[in-house]
Amino acid sequence: MIRLEDIRAWQEDRKFDEKFLEAYDSGEEFTERAIEEMVWIGSVDEIKFGKRRWSETTQSILKMGDRFFSIDWECGLTEMQEDSFMNQPVEVEKVVKEVVAISTTWDVIK
User: Fold this and answer.
1) Per the confidence metrics, is the pTM higher than 0.70?
2) Every domain of the chain and the residues it spans
């Protein structure tokens, strides 16, 4: 299990990407605090999904070496709600798609 202390040591050694990839590829899991630290120091993109009353689902994308990883987490929406980092990183690839949107509106007849 990779802990917050491990993440901080990797940063100090300037081998963060290398050590992360070794741990991920060997099937190691990360503690919630370690995942939180990775989100704050390494996000290259962030996608917000549906807001609920107390939290908003957020997907952070991390770049490690030439690979990308996604971490889904819950962002607390009030000062009383903690952020929650319960999901392990998963490897992803960037896919660019052209999307055509059709919109219907109801305009007032003059």
Assistant:
1) yes
2) 4-92
- Cα–Cα distances (Å) from 95 to 45, 59, 68, 92, 98, in that order, read 13, 15, 12, 9, 10
Mean predicted confidence (pLDDT) in 47-59: 90
Element (H, E) at 64: strand 55-64
DSSP string, 10-46: HHHTT-HHHHHHHHHHTT--B-HHHHHHHHHHHEEEE
pLDDT band, very low/low/confident/very high, at 79 (cuts 50, 70, 90) = confident
d(CA 49, CA 42): 20
Cα–Cα distance measured from residue 62 to residue 97, given in angstroms and rounded to the nearest whole number: 20
- Enumerate residues 6+ apart whose C-beta is below 8 A from 106: none
